[in-house]
């Protein structure tokens, strides 16, 4: 357990303040220990991991920030009619993509296009815009393990939840809460596609050519409204290059906000609000952020 831990290096925007308390458990047992410590002191917990698609408040974040980044690694790979991969929640999507790629399976292409870890992918039902199969997490998840605490007794339970028990929506999943996802099991039919390596290379090339990977960012900031592309709406409103403090709407991709020269979380939040207000006023379309806000926000 650390006190007054800076959170800037623990999120892909490289912003945010300090955690009152911070821990990075590397097993379910150590996660239980930290969580129980917080429960006994009636402290709020904030769970982060890969650090993409989150905006952490400036200043002190009261409570205990728990990073699942150290709870990573592939536990088991089973091959047969399907390739089944069991991994810890903090495992990077790219690590799982490599296993699918080795077997020439389609999820390798979709996972190559998404930053972050597997647990976060479930929470956000992460996906890509291209019309391919699969294109989001709900299509590859077989089950998840969720750790829960009884708020009255402090006792823990580990619950295995099947894909069919989870409600999958665009950039959101539900019905598995409350709790913390500690393991993710994904799978795909073991039918090799020799085009998959070319698809992975094309996806990688597209990310490099169209996204501002040279500057800190969180990935896509807004969901795509039905029938629209957020980036096109933002660009049509003349907002590329719009700046507040050190935060800027990317000139390369309008649905990305980058940290250029010392942005704060407040700068980014103000840009998000300005984009939403401007796009709604000029186009009548309401943009909904994909970003999860961590901390106490107005």
What's the layout of helices and strands?
Elements: E1 2-6, E2 18-23, H1 28-40, E3 45-48, E4 54-56, E5 60-67, E6 74-78, E7 82-88, H2 93-102, H3 107-112, H4 118-124, E8 141-149, E9 156-162, E10 167-169, E11 172-174, E12 180-189, H5 196-210, H6 230-236, E13 243-244, E14 247-249, E15 257-259, H7 265-283, E16 292-294
Parallel strand pairs: 2-5, 3-5, 4-16
Antiparallel strand pairs: 1-2, 6-7, 7-12, 8-9, 8-12, 10-11, 13-14, 14-15
Short summary of the structure?
The chain has helices at residues 28-40, 93-102, 107-112, 118-124, 196-210, 230-236, 265-283; strands at 2-6, 18-23, 45-48, 54-56, 60-67, 74-78, 82-88, 141-149, 156-162, 167-169, 172-174, 180-189, 243-244, 247-249, 257-259, 292-294. The chain is an alpha+beta fold and 298 residues long.
The multimeric state of the shown protein is single chain
CATH-defined architecture of the largest domain: 2-Layer Sandwich
Share of helix, binned? 25-40%
What characterizes the major β-sheet? 5 strands, antiparallel
Number of helices: 7
Instruction: Give unreliable regions as ranges.
Output: none
Number of strands: 16
Structural class: alpha+beta
Domain count: the total is 3
Order of helices and strands: EEHEEEEEHHHEEEEEHHEEEHE
Global mean pLDDT: 96
Please report which band the strand proportion falls in: under 5%, 5-15%, 15-25%, 25-35%, 35-45% or over 45%.
Answer: 25-35%
Query: In whole angstroms, how far apart are the ends?
Result: 28 Å
Strand order of the largest sheet: 6-7-12-8-9
Structural shape:
globular
Rg, rounded, reads 19 Å
CATH topology of the largest domain: Uridine Diphospho-n-acetylenolpyruvylglucosamine Reductase, domain 3
Give the class-level CATH name of the largest domain: Alpha Beta
